[in-house]
Design a protein that fits this description.
binds adenosine-5'-triphosphate; single chain; four-stranded antiparallel beta sheet; binds magnesium ion; alpha/beta; about 290 residues
């Protein structure tokens, strides 16, 4: 299927005959387990395994039996129409949803064999291991240097010269060092939007996460900034596993190795990106990629 087809207007909802019914009773914890399109049948071992993940905002269930495996040192893209649960799914991996009352996840998210949703998990350490980049750059109201040093000061006790070295490395790894080396004490807010987003990536990378979650990281950034972030993502997988939510199908095609298509809180299809794009196994995926709805 040509990627150009996705530029067709998004006109209406999907063909009802192609949509599987949702669980009529959200209290039934129906779990498909490892059946279905959970894991691409090739590639590296999973960094994270999501099993039977349900999610609730209050009494309202918005994720249903999500199952997938996130391959190590690869980029996995999550696509799907607005409101299908992409951000909610992503925010379960580091339990950031728990910062807000009334939100509940049920199921399992195994990170290197440990269920991060289990009671007793050290969420501070979890959030060090699982970093997050949001749609809008979330720089802290402090200097460029202090933004990157923030997590290092929290998680490692480094001498001043070692701290400076780590900050320089992190800024270098996102291609920002040469742009900000003379402005390290300037407020982060004085950088451009694209630079701020790369600063956020540097801040996340400085504490050496194993998994980096990116929720539409380029949607607020101009094309040049977007291209730099995409190049950065491609280089990142040597050191980290990436899960990225994007509305931009071309971006998913450019940066991801694997792709999951979500619809109404469910994982409809998951596989190698080229396969999902060119030979989707579900009609619903094909309809979405063709621009028949969305
Ligand atoms: N704070 C909240 N309280 C109640 N329901 C919510 C809340 N946040 C999201 N939802 C609902 O959960 C569902 C999934 O939302 P989510 O934000 O995960 O979708 P999304 O796929 O990321 O959408 P988008 O592409 O627009 O960002 C939607 O029906 C949404 O209305
Ligand atoms: Mg979202």
């Amino acid at each position: 299927m040509s990627l150009m087809r996705q530029s067709f207007g998004r006109l209406r909802g999907p063909d009802p005959d192609r949509v599987r019914p949702l669980n009529p009773n959200p209290d039934d914890h129906v779990c498909r387990g490892i059946q279905g399109t959970v894991r691409p049948d090739l590639g590296p071992p999973p960094k994270a395994r999501v099993r039977c993940l349900d999610f609730f905002y209050g009494n309202r269930q918005v994720l249903f039996d999500n199952n997938l495996e996130v391959p190590s040192n690869r980029v996995t893209a999550i696509i799907g129409p607005s409101g299908c649960g992409k951000s909610t799914h992503l925010r379960a991996y580091n339990r950031i949803f728990e910062l807000y009352p009334g939100r509940r996840a049920r199921g399992e998210i195994m990170l290197d064999g440990v269920d991060v949703l289990a009671p007793g998990v050290d969420v501070i350490d979890l959030r060090r291991r699982v970093g997050m980049i949001f749609q809008q750059p979330t720089t802290f109201p402090m200097s460029v240097f202090d933004n990157v040093a923030f997590g290092l000061r929290l998680h490692a006790s480094l001498r001043a010269d070692a701290l400076r070295f780590e900050v320089e490395q992190a800024l270098g790894s996102v291609g920002l060092w040469d742009e900000v080396r003379d402005r390290l004490n300037a407020p982060a807010a004085s950088l451009s939007g694209g630079q701020q987003q790369r600063l956020c990536v540097a801040r996340a990378l400085a504490i050496r996460p194993e998994l980096l979650l990116m929720d539409e990281p380029t949607s607020a950034i101009d094309p040049i900034g977007t291209s730099r972030i995409e190049d950065l993502i491609l280089g990142l997988k040597r050191r980290v596993t990436v899960v990225i939510v994007t509305h931009n199908l071309q971006q998913a095609a450019r940066v991801s190795d694997f792709m999951a298509f979500f619809y109404e809180g469910r994982v409809v299809e998951f596989g190698p990106t080229s396969q999902v794009f060119h030979r989707p196994s579900e009609h619903l995926t094909e309809d979405y990629l063709s621009g028949r709805f969305g």
